[in-house]
Amino acid sequence: MTQPVPFVDLVRMHEPLAERFRRAFDQVLQSGQFHLGPRTRAFEQAFAEHEGSRFGVGCGSGSDALVLALRALDVGPGDAVVTVSNSFMATAESIRRVGADVVFAEPDPGTRCLDPIDLDRILGEPGAERIRAVIPVHLYGHRADTDGINTVLQGADRADVHVIGDAAQAHGSPGVAGETTLTCYSFYPAKNLGALGDAGMVLSQDEALCERLRGLRNHGRSGKHAVAELGYNSRFDELAAAMLHIKLDVLRQWNEQRRFAADAYRALLNDVPGVELPADDPGHVYHLFVVEVDPTIRDAVVAGLKARGVGVGLHYPVATHQMAPYPSNRPLPITERLVSSVLSLPMFPGITPLELERTAHALRESLLAAHEEPR
Question: In the chain, N or C terminus with fewer CB closer than 10 Å?
Answer without folding.
Answer: N
